[in-house]
Amino acid sequence: MSCASCSTGKDGQPKGCKSNGTCGTDSCNKLTVFDWLANMSLPNGEVAFDFIEVRFKNGRKQYYKNKENLTLSIGDIVATQAASGHDIGMVTLTGELVRVQMKRKKIAPKPDEILKIYRKASQKDIDIWSAARDKEEPMKVKARQFAIDLKLQMKISDIEFQGDSSKATFYYTAEDRVDFRELIKLFAKEFRTRIEMKQVGFRQEASRLGGIGSCGRELCCSTWLTDFRSVSTSAARYQQLSLNPQKLAGQCGKLKCCLNYELDSYLDALKVFPKTDTKLYTEKGTAVCQKTDIFKGHLWYAYEGEWMNWHIITAAQAKEIIALNKNKEKVASLEEYASELIIDTKTEFENVVGQDSLTRFDRPKGNKKRRNNKANPSNKNNNNRNNKNRNRKNNNKPQNKKTSNPSNAKK
Fold this sequence. Notes:
Blueprint lengths: L50 E5 L5 E5 L11 E5 L4 E8 L2 H9 L12 E4 L2 H12 L1 H14 L5 E7 L5 E7 L7 H11 L2 E6 L2 H8 L10 H4 L9 H6 L6 H4 L14 H8 L9 E2 L4 E8 L4 E6 L2 E9 H12 L8 H4 L29 H8 L1 H20 L4 H4 L1 H5 L1
Parallel strand pairs: 7-8
Antiparallel strand pairs: 1-2, 1-4, 3-4, 3-5, 6-7, 9-10, 10-11, 11-12
Helix pairs in contact: 3-4, 12-13
């Protein structure tokens, strides 16, 4: 973090972003683009690119033309053109990198669709914008209650006011088509503003709301992931994961985006393996692939009719057998290949002091002598014998002279 408000406190605890991601350096937002051309001047005769990237709430970005030739830098609050009225946003990128971003996102606005920047936002504009932002949270609570009362199968996830407080956009998620005409009438009557309903996907909703994933870290979509690629169950199959919806689904209810992170590595590793649907023909019978181990490079095959007996071979051996089958040759059996593999299944564990028994504290503490006597009756007999021997020794000891001679006692 480069801004001072996000630094560490005196006690070592992080302060957190005091500006909620709208600080001047703009280094806390996942959509921030580092302008590595900021310190470089343009060649002679070149005109700076006149489009500006402006970000609004919920990560919404748009590109505006700087027709007024305003001197803008990253972090400036500007008033931009809207369909009706004006909107307030923050400048996130200027210069030649805006051209690269627009080309990457395939944005080529038509002349009649180009929006412009009016001016830098005044204090009055910022006050109106802040007051509108403060009304969003209580409005969201009421809006959800209206949707529940009308029994609509939808969820209102967020509300965004336009900068001049003339329009409110309601973001919602729904699995099916929803008829919300009656709901819009209630919204317009209650909130006294223009209403726009916009449906978003479940992944976009999770990125707006945020949360903690099953890995214990913040959601990728709410911290750094900006583009949502489609995730299919084939990604889990290639990685040999169990197709359990409860484990593969994220908080959005869809397949986890992290299934795509290592998919390319698995696909590259699988190029060494033969196809699993290829059968091996031997003199003993036809073998079918049952399982693969990508990390060790092993495959398990079973003969047709003997599905319980699996034979393990390497990927190179499987390719060798397939090459022989293409030449219409058969090997004797898979056992001669499987016998070459020596698998060390013996695992030695060291006894860690204090961890040899998980229930060592559950047993109540008793008298060690009683427990030994009960556990070993011979110990009890030995103790009785020892007591008898002690008594005999005491009886054989000479008595005191003063008390043993009665004449001395009389004197």
